[in-house]
Amino acid sequence: MLTSSRGEVVKKTDKNKKIGWGVVGSTSWSEHTFSPAIEKARGAELRAVLASTRNKAAAFCQRHGIENGYSKLEEFVADTSIDAVWIGGPTHMHKDHAVAALKAGKHVLCEKPMAITPSECRAMMRAAKLARRKLNVAYNTRHSPKIQQLQKDWRAGRYGNPVHGRAHYYYPYPAKPGGWHSREKQVGSWVFNDIGTHLIDQLRWFLGDAKKVMAAHKSSPSWGYGTPDHAVAMISFKNGSVGTLSASTGMAPGRSRLEFYADNGFVIIDNGMMGTEGSITTGLKGGKEKTVKLPFSPTYKLQVEAFGRHIMCHAPYPLNPEDGLENVKLISQARGW
Q1: How many domains in the chain?
Q2: Domain assignment present for 315
Q3: Does residue 174 sit in the same domain as residue 261?
Q4: Cβ–Cβ contacts within 10 Å for residue 283, how many?
Q5: Helices 321-335 & 118-131 angle (0-180, nearest 10)
Q6: Tens digits of per-residue pLDDT, 131-142?
């Protein structure tokens, strides 16, 4: 017998019932990535959108073949066809959107980072607990099957005790984004909240709980905003290991690299973040290196499906709201506010 997180019994005849999704945001990533992921995912159906204007909502509905488009938050969360909401709007609006959706009885998948400040994250977590609804964060790389298996092997001690993790990702925006991306308090330090948050998540996933940010440097060599587009940081972890990250929203070549070193071996993931094609190289001390291809993985679609199973039958989800909170704590330390 299946039960939903609402405590309702899911009858056998309802096993194929789809979860109705509403998406916050009608352009950019909500348009070209999040909504298509819902449309392709098993057990999911895109049913509504919240846009900044009525015209944008109507245009989105026409493009995606849905009927329910809104420009007012209260009307969007009151839509009874929506079971779950994917929050893809500006970071400084995550908390208000999430709390409203949770209070209205919706489950919430929030884009990374969870919010601007730790206090906002905690407010979202309180709202989820009170509403008895699922809340989680969209770090899609955690849904790559091959990286999941690699992480399990690493955490199981196959390569020994962790010593150092190095996470690098330069993601050059094709054009100057402007808007809220250029405003420090709304974007929460651009490069940290855009790319750095993914790298922090990978370091925490492999190395465990972090202790503190030991050092950080931020600058704006690419776009010249008052919020950084390049950053480097060093983080200490409770198991005695250390992690370093380097991130950019303007510099080439647009590839990621994750390196994890233990006292008896190592793993290197060349590219592969966000589900992109790459390679995995592993090795044990005194042994031969082995490199295998890392194929493209539809991590955004897999994320939707995993959250759906999490809602309907309490299946494990590869992270929890506390991961989102701890990530934002580290970002806050790194940016200095």
Answers
A1: 2
A2: no
A3: yes
A4: 16
A5: 170
A6: 999 999 999 999
